[in-house]
Design a protein that fits this description.
about 270 residues; mainly alpha
Length: about 270
Amino acid sequence: MIAASMTTLLPILFLASFWLWETFAPARPFADHRLKHAGNNLALALGNNLLIGVLFGTATVLVAEWTETRHAGLTGLLGWSGFWRVVLVIVLLDAAMYVWHRLNHEIPFLWRFHRMHHTDTRMDVTTATRFHLGEHLGARLNRLWLIPLIGASAWEVVLYDLCLLAVTQWHHANVSVGRWDAPLRSILVTPGMHKVHHSEIRDETNSNYSAVFSWWDRIGRSFRFRDDLGAIRFGLPEFPERRWQGIWGMLTTPFVDHPPPESDGEKG
């Protein structure tokens, strides 16, 4: 009951907090139709969450309970418990998230679904909720085998998901932490770091895949940064029309053939 309440109330609290932050101290001026933009993103997210809850909620809990009772996975093999076990599980789940995110950019079929997240030209906290159902299905199927492989318990998965939610809402929000961005991004994915990932320049889009901990991009040699964050244009050049910002446009994005523009290395 407590876990269910946390997974319901905390996301709303996080969203409201970052919404207020970007309202009163935005990193860049908001474009028109902010409420309509947020409404479309949140309506899509609500529908996705309801469907994913029905399809995978019980299955995920059962897999996690089986893993815990059988002491399966890496944590069971190592015999770890307590604080360091929790740290290990969170780090490994985040490493898996980095790999999954990177594959969504590098495998054309997965990119068809993930690119809907990148078509948002008005990046704010609600962009953190803007994912296609097809991408959610793939992520949840992956989670079903990752849990027993790592040896994660149900509450450890919930804890990681709450950390993931808080950090992703923060680094998608239209906020800035100023000079603190540099020291913070040595550990966490910051708003400045993630703004580069949402650049319309393809070589920048294909960088900074980390979700919570930023060190994965340094390990994977996919880290990029630029100082002129205010000059970044968000979105994808092949989806410039406003119709891709509506619910129907977002839902149909994976099924439209739009070849990506050449990267800097492919030109000439």
